[in-house]
Amino acid sequence: MEFPFNLFDLNSIYEFATAQTASYWINLGVSILISTIVTGIILVIVMQLVSRRTGESIKPANAFLVVLLVNVINYFGIMGIMLSFIAAVPFMALALPAIIWILLLKLFFGSMRWIHIVIIGLVFYGISLYIVPYITTFIASFIPI
What's the total number of domains in the chain? Predict the structure, then answer.
């Protein structure tokens, strides 16, 4: 089977899942959990600062949901699947993660203005690209697995 059709083939998904070791899945789960907590805390702090400055109300729990969805999209290869459908667009590999951040932020923080969402989305795209991996691996090194 070729690419678009093997997404819906449960047997190929099962073969991929069983080909990995248990420690791989445990490490992946720990990485997602730590990354979600670290980025979520940073996002809550930034969103609180922006909401105080602009007077817009936010729900801090939504920050963790946004970060969890972004992590699932990044860690489980959903980003690669989306990029394969729009590979002809130049620089889409750089723009698509930022677009996903912006859209998820607008989805969960709908009362905020677009300009604030775009700025926060771009900032957190950069943070999740450069800063969070260092913090996540630092914290994960103290967890005995």
Answer: 1
Range of the domain at 135: 30-140
Asked whether residue 10 is domain-assigned, the answer is: no
How far is 52 from 135, CA to CA, in rounded Å? 27
39 lies in some domain: yes
State residue 107's pLDDT score: 93
Give CA–CA dist 129/97, Å, rounded: 10
CB atoms within 10 A of CB 12: 13
Q: Which residues contact 112 (CB under 8 A, 6 or more apart)?
A: 50, 51, 54, 56, 58, 105, 106
CB-CB neighbours of 101 under 10 Å? 26
3-class SS letters over 104-118: HHHHHCCCCCHHHHH
Q: pLDDT at residue 86 above 90?
A: no
Query: Rounded CA gap, 63 and 144, in Å?
Result: 28
Would residue 9 count as lying in a domain?
no
Q: pLDDT higher for 104 or 28?
A: 104
pTM: 0.79
Residue 12 lies in a domain: no
pLDDT of residue 29: 87
